[in-house]
Structures are given as structure tokens and as C-alpha cells.
## 1
Amino acid sequence: MELQSIDLFFVILYLTGIALFGVWIGRGVKSGYDLFLAGRSLPWWAVGASLVVSDIGAKDMVGLADEGYRHGLVMANYDLIGCIFPVLIAAFVFMPFLWLAGVYTIPEYLGRRYNFAVRFCFAVVWAVVMVGMLGVIFVSAASMFKELLGWSFTTSVLTTAVVVGLYTISGGLKAVVFTDLVSCIVLIIGMVLICMIGLDKVGGWEALRTQVGALPDTEHHFELVRSASDPDNPWTAMLLGLGFVLGPAYWIGNQAIVQRTFGTVSQAEARASYVLCAAIKIVFPFLLVIPGLIGLALFHDKFGGVRSDNWTGGLVLPELVKLLPPGILGIVIGAFLAGVMSNLDSYVNSATTLCVTDLYKPIFRQGASDYEMLWVGRLLIVIFLAGGAIASYEIQQRFTTVFTAFQTLLSLYQGALLSVLLLGMLSRRVTQWGGFAGLIVGVTSASLMHYQGVHMLWVAWWSFVAAVCANVGVSMLTKPHDDERLQGLVIGMQSVAKESV
Amino acid sequence: MDGRFVYAAVFAAVIVWLLVVPTSRLYDDDQVRPWYRNVRFWAICVAATQVIIYLAWNG
């Protein structure tokens, strides 16, 4: 596909503009505290927008269009019951509490609440998963760039890695959050344009319903909530696995998400940023899934039916974008670049923070200065980008869609993470060895169920239940930390922490 | 059972919780805030929108 000069202008403008803006906004980074938490100076409105695009990125644009094509509107629940519900709860209960605890990372909190073993295990699991996440993001970027710009897989990966690396290395979390703010605006404009122009091509909303409804196996494509007997997305599994486990674990325990909230000025701003995120997210599910339905109406002859065995993931959105007129196309590609970069920078920055705070400093260099942590962090950003690029080759071959790859990775340990986090925050009776047992049992049971072919939403739910049982059972048999040690680490025991802040 | 009503009930429960939870649990001070600066108000609006989406959308 040949891009017009005006489209190329927008693409180059966006790439150079965002890199320069990121480097400029992040100037003055002098320590690890600045790199990882932006010196706790971030405003709630920037963090709120950053939260949205740290979650919604290229993998969701490409992946949810694919899933919308195959499964229909039910996939919007990943951002409704799976996001807005846990975000509202986290905004008023967990984020202000974690902000007050004054931690850099979630494993750091777990280490203080339980013991170093729990902290170490979660830090290692997160670091490995984040490399996988980076790989997923690279794959989604490459599939789009190949279709739209004719770039090879390697060129796509290298270009995105260099641009993101440039401003993330120099500006840290502050650069990440403010470039995310720009990305959020561009992303919304781009997705609205795709939906409007796509619907116009189909002939409007009613025509879309008619055309999709006439295709085989699409009788439930416009149902937002499926029946409990649905084989792919029963409402029970979506509520228990997604709404009660994957969603809360993601919005309370995902380092890439919560880290920007730790960088806000105050508890109140941390709370406000989450509520703003929930408000913006109301429109996103539809902006991301409807392109898949439009793609089904327009390209079912090319890609095959919704149950096609020859399905190749990552092609619906690029095909749709090709319909856009010159000028608009450049803006939409800019939106896609925004999605790629906002996701990449968040995961790279958080993976680095986690490795420096939870692995490098406590294990290798307990006396490391803030300046040393800054430079180790910068080196790790390069290493993580390289690791993600390598992982992307493997992920490309293993999963049918990038969204499935992402959710499968999460379902393996989110149940265990949520159980350990929730019980640790809510109960003083839970012990360090209870937490450790919950972690081991949760991850092991999730892996076994995944191996047996159990649906990932049920994997998340039942691994959570198993982890809670193990945590509670072992805690009943072992001695908890004394109350003095738990001050500021359990909700309702915050007097000392508040006074110190 | 229709899952839509269960999903709507989840968000309705969030609204009820936001309405009854004491202000002291939500804020560091007892200051009265105008509605447009009150995050509890905006959170209730978001949750109410979700209730409407799940109840109104019928496939």
C-alpha cells in the first residue's frame, strides 16, 4: 500500500514530535526517584489519561478488532465489567492505600507485608511476563506496519523500540505519562474516525446489523452479555474470571498500571486519576470492538467466516484502515503509533522499576545510590526492549490473536496475585507463609488448568479460589506478623503511615 | 438467569456503596466539596452509565 505524502507527513510528524516532546518534558531527571516515580509530581488529569492508554494500546486496537470480528460485541466486556468495575473499587479502596504505603512497586509492598520470598517470586514472574507483554506489543505493531507501510517485521520492531527507548531512557515516568496524554487524545480521534468512516462504508448502524446478522454463526454478535451456556464467553465466566479476578488483579496489581498512580502528588490525586480513567474508558470498548464488526461486514469474503479454521490474526484493523482517505489515514496511523508507544513505554518503564527496586537493589547492591539506580534503570530499559523484540518472534508463531496471547499470559498468575494482595491488604491474620503458599498454589493450579485446556477465564477464577484457600489454610497454622510490623500495610492500620507522610 | 441484570446489579451495588460509605473513609479531611470537584459524584455517574448500558443494550 502506497501512502500519500500528506499521510507520510503525519506519520513522521508524530514519530519525531512525540520523541522530542518526551525528551523535553522529561528533562531534569537526576535520580532513580525521578525516573521511576517522576518525583511524585504528576497531576491527576495526566495520570488518568495515561492509565487509559497504558491499558489500551496497539494490542487492543488490533486484538479487539480481531475478537470483535470473531466473537462480536461481547468482547466490550473486557473494558466494561473487566475494567470500569475494578477501577472504581480500586480508586476508593486500594490506590490511596498503596500510595500512602509509599512503595515503588507492588512486589515491594508484598515484601513488606509478607516476606522477601513472596516479593522475589512476584518480581521474577512479573519481569518474565513483561518481556512477553513487550513481545505481544511488538507483534501487534508489526502486523499493522507490514500491511500499511510495507515494513518488515524487523524494521517495525526496531523503529518502535528506538523511538520509545529514546524518551523513556531520558525522561522516565514523567515523559511516559505526558506522552501518553498526547497519545490518548490522538488515539480517541483515530478510533472515532475509523468507526465513523467504516460505518459510512457499510451504510450505517442498521445496515451493519443486517449484514452481519445475515452471515453464518453470527446470531449472538450484537449481544453484550451472552448466556451462561455460551461455549466461548458465558456471562458467568466473564463475571467471575474477568470482573472479579483478572480485572481487579490488573488494576490493583499490575505494575505497569499502578506505577503512574504512585507518581501522583497526593492520595486524593491518585483517587481522582482512577475515576478519570474509568470515565474515559466508557467509550473505548465500543470504539475498539465495533471496527471488528465493520470488518466482518466488509471483508468476510476475504478473511472467511467467524469460525474459519484458516484464521490469521491481526489483519482486520489494517484492512479497515486502508479504506480511509488521504490525510485521515495519516492521522489514524498516528493513532496506532500512539497506541504502540503508550503501551511499550509503560511496560518498559515498569519492568525496569521492578527489576531495579525488587531484584537489583535488595539482592546485588543493597547500598546502591539513587544515581546508580538511575543508570542501572536506563541500561535495563535497553535490555527489556531487546528481550521483548526477541520474544515477539516466538509469540507471533504461537498465538492466533495478540489479545488472546495477552489475556492468556495474565490468567496464569493473576489469580494468585489478587489473592495475596487482597488478603494481605484486608486481613492482619494472614501470615507470610500463607502468602507464599497462596502464590505457589495459585500459579501451579493455573498452569495445570491451562495445560488441560480450561478456558482462561475459568483458569483465572479457580486459581484465585485455590490461592485463597491455600493462603487462609496455611495462615491458620502459622504465626502472623505483630501489629507494629503491619502498620500502614493493612487497611485500617494506617495511623503510623499517615503520621509519617 | 439473564446475565445483563447481574452485571447491572454489580454496578448498582457499587453506587450504593459509594453513597453509604462515610466521607472520612474517602477523604483525608471533612471539607465539603462542590459537586464538580467531588470524585464520589463522578464515580457514581460512571457506575450509573454502566447500569444503563447493561440494562438498555438488548442485542
Note: Confidence is low (pLDDT under 50) at residues 496-501 of chain A.
## 2
Amino acid sequence: MNRFETAVAQPRGMATETNKVLKNTYMLLSATLGFSALTAMLSMSIGTSPMTYLLSLIAAMVLGMFVLPRTANSSAGIGVLFLITGLLGFGLGAVLSIYLALPKGPEIIATAFGGTGVIFLGLSGYALTTKRNFSFMGGFLFAGMMVVVIAMLANLFFALPALSLAVSAGIILLMSGFILFDTSRIIHGGETNYIMATFSLYMSIFNIFISLLQILGLMSGDD
Amino acid sequence: MDWMKILAAVALLMMLFVSWRGFKWWSANSPKAEKGDWNSALLALAAVAAFVALLIMMVR
């Protein structure tokens, strides 16, 4: 079936539902990003140790994998989502404190922040306007995730800066693909739960920001 | 610290399991790409790569 015909012949009810999911997703995404910024500032003011990042990341992963899918169809899902994003923001604060201590730290953080915003807005705008359905990328993206995770596991023990750089670059490209994929699924009715949609987009933004920080830190010669 | 490495490895193994489940599901259920779909996706990803290269040049 031609996807342009699908887009034009989409029933009015379905199009309204899609717009509602999209609007709710972007509103919740803005709120969770703002909440993460608050918890990151709290973490930086307390002066948490770098270990906080790893612990909050694991706690957020467990919540995201096992609790969020079970609560996403109720209002409790919103609370769980804020808990996850709050934890990730709190962990991020510890990382930002390390970067702020570098000579070019504030510049690197600002560049990574702006860069993440441009990448997200650019890709979302592209997915929203191109009318193409990027859902076909699902298998490819998850296969790529497996390769990247295996490389990360290997680098835990080898600690090679070049591999670390390659992993960060791979994550940025994969998460960019996920932004196209997730936005496309919302537009074409593949994702009707705005809590899960927000979680996916939030994770892509978070990973792009962290990876950009790492790449810019390594390439600026400060890290 | 060794226990931190072990903790990170456990987290990564969990991610690997989730990715494997996602890969299995999407390999069986994802729609086929139509003509021009891959080109559109690769164009966007190439733009991202070029933008990241620009950011790197800015901080050097």
C-alpha cells in the first residue's frame, strides 16, 4: 500500500488520536526534561560522587524495563516516568560536575546541550514532515544496539579511548535512528501510549547528550 | 573499583537482553522498507554525523 495514500486516507478519528498522542508526548517530554534539569542541579549542589551516575542509571534501567511497561496504561505510569527521569537527571549531575572541573568544561557542556537540542529538533521535524514511515528500521536499530552493548562490555575491561570514541559515535547514530523510528511510529499509529513514547524519546535524547559530552570531552583534549 | 565494573557489566547484560528481545520482535514484525526509505534515513544520519563533526571542530 502506498504510504502517501495511507496518510491522506487516514480516518479523521485516527488522525485526531495520533495528534493527541503526539501532543501529549511532547508535553510530557518537556516536563520530564525540565524535571531532570532540576534533579541534576540538586545533585551538583550536593556534590554527589561519580558512582551516583552508575547507581541511578541501573535503578532507572530496572524501573524502565520492569515497572514502566506494567504501569504505562495508568496514571501511575506518569509517576514512574518522573521517577526514572529524575534519577537519570540526578546521576547526570555527577557527570556534569566532573566536566565543569575541566578547563573547557562549561563550553563542552553548552555545546553538547545545544547540539543535542538541534539533533532532536532536526530529526523530529524531518520525521514529521517527510511522510515516510521509518518503522522498517526496528530490526536494524536493535541489532545495532546489541553490537554497541557488546563493544561497551569489551571496553569495560580493555578501556581503549579509541573504542570509547567509536561507541559514543555509534550511540549518537543509533539514537538518531531511534528518534526517526519512534516519531514515525507515533505519527503512523504504531505507538498509542504517550508514556512509553515519551520514555523512548527521552532515552534517545539522554544518550545523545551523554555521548556528545564524551566525544567533545575526548576531542577537545581535556578528558 | 572492581565491583563497579561488575555492576556496569550486569547493567550492560540487562541492556543486551532487552536489545535481543527487541531485535527478535522487530525482525519478525517490522514493515518492509519501500523504495527511497533507506536513502531518506541515511541522509538524516549523514546530516547528524556532519553536524557532530562541526561541533568537534568548534570545541578544538
Note: Residues 26 and 198 of chain A are 7 Å apart (CA to CA).
